[in-house]
Design goal:
Blueprint: E1 4-5, H1 8-30, E2 35-41, H2 45-60, E3 64-70, H3 76-88, E4 94-97, H4 107-113, H5 125-133, H6 141-153, E5 161-165, H7 172-181, E6 185-189, H8 196-200, E7 205-208, E8 226-229, E9 233-237, E10 240-244, H9 249-252, E11 258-259, H10 266-287
Parallel strand pairs: 1-11, 2-3, 2-4, 5-6, 5-7, 7-8, 8-11
Antiparallel strand pairs: 9-10
Helix pairs in contact: 1-10, 2-10, 6-7, 6-10
Bound molecules: 5,10-Methenyltetrahydrofolate.
Length: 288
């Protein structure tokens, strides 16, 4: 292996310590404890794990958390009513409604009702718009976390080519916006892109966010490139469950300069950035 592993787990722990210090200062100076409301509808076991990890991180950072676990058959009207209450609650600085939602609920309608200034997921159209025109707002946690990792290695991306594989509203598109803000030349690739391996081989920064296990192989990677693997896929290997990314780590690490592992890469950064967005939200309210 030639690549250096980007230790997202350790960097996220460092970030949580910084957040804890800043949150303690905020409490001393302003008497404010940033509050995060997490809403989970249904009892999908994988979702449950994320919610628990988020609650653990909240406690570690000295933030307050409000947990709302609703039954899988919750009506859209009831969920909208809860969001309305959280919007009005001054103790709540951040609202996260865990996706996916059950099919009787229109997720766009729910996300669209969240107060954009409490939208710590950065999924509201107003925050997507703010990001695209460079106004302050909330940046989705996964791209924000990935960008922090990239920044540590390459503070400027001027003259660099960044390729983002995946065009989702929650990762691919906001990731591309952030890379563009850092002056990268950005290409967004997706399932209909021609000659994807050839294109990827031109990337100085390659971000894989497609949700296809082990898709990106070593011979897709430019020697020395920074490879960021956003995928979290549970696959079966020899009858056992295993967590893998969208990148075939073993072969890609032979070629890349730096690479994130899965797990312990981008995942922990996502959760740390949720804490950071919640702290930012409280700080903005204090600043008026
Ligand atoms: N409104 C909303 N916002 C989200 O941010 C959101 C969501 N819905 N729905 C589900 C996905 C998934 N997600 C993860 C975050 C961290 C890890 C994470 O920390 N993973 C660890 C290990 C996980 C494990 O061991 O199972 C790692 O990669 O090292 C995983 C998955 C946030 N999501």
């Amino acid at each position: 292996m030639v690549a250096q592993i980007i230790d997202g787990f350790a960097i996220a722990a460092e970030l949580r310590r910084d957040i804890a210090v800043r949150a303690a200062e905020m409490k001393d100076k302003h008497g404010v404890v940033p509050g995060l409301a997490v809403v989970l509808v249904g009892d999908d076991p994988a979702s449950g794990v994320y919610v628990r990890n988020k609650l653990k991180a909240t406690a570690e950072c000295g933030l307050r958390s409000f947990e709302h676990i609703l039954p899988a058959d919750t009506s859209e009207a009831d969920l909208l009513a809860l969001v309305g209450k959280l919007n009005a609650d001054p103790a709540v600085h951040g609202i996260l409604v865990q996706l996916p939602l059950p099919k009787q609920i229109d997720a766009d309608k729910v996300l669209g009702l969240i107060d954009p200034d409490k939208d710590v997921d950065g999924f509201h159209p107003v925050n997507a718009g703010r990001l695209s025109i460079g106004l302050p707002g909330f940046v989705p946690c996964t791209p924000r976390g990935a960008q922090i990792l990239i920044d540590r290695l390459l503070p400027s991306l001027a003259g660099k080519h960044a390729v983002v594989i995946g065009r989702s509203n929650i990762v691919g598109k906001p990731m591309a916006q952030l890379l563009l803000q850092k002056n990268a030349t950005v290409t967004i690739a997706h399932s209909r892109t021609a000659d994807l391996p050839d294109l990827c081989r031109t990337a100085d920064v390659l971000v894989a966010a497609v949700g296809r296990p082990l898709m990106v192989k070593g011979d897709w990677v430019k020697p020395g490139a920074v490879v960021i693997d956003v995928g979290i896929n549970r696959i079966e290997v020899d009858g056992k469950g295993k967590l893998v990314g969208d990148v075939d780590f073993a072969s890609a690490a032979e070629v890349a300069g730096f690479i994130t592992p899965v797990p312990k890469g981008v995942g922990p950064m996502t959760i740390a950035c949720l804490m950071l967005n919640t702290l930012d939200s409280a700080a903005r309210r204090i600043a008026g």
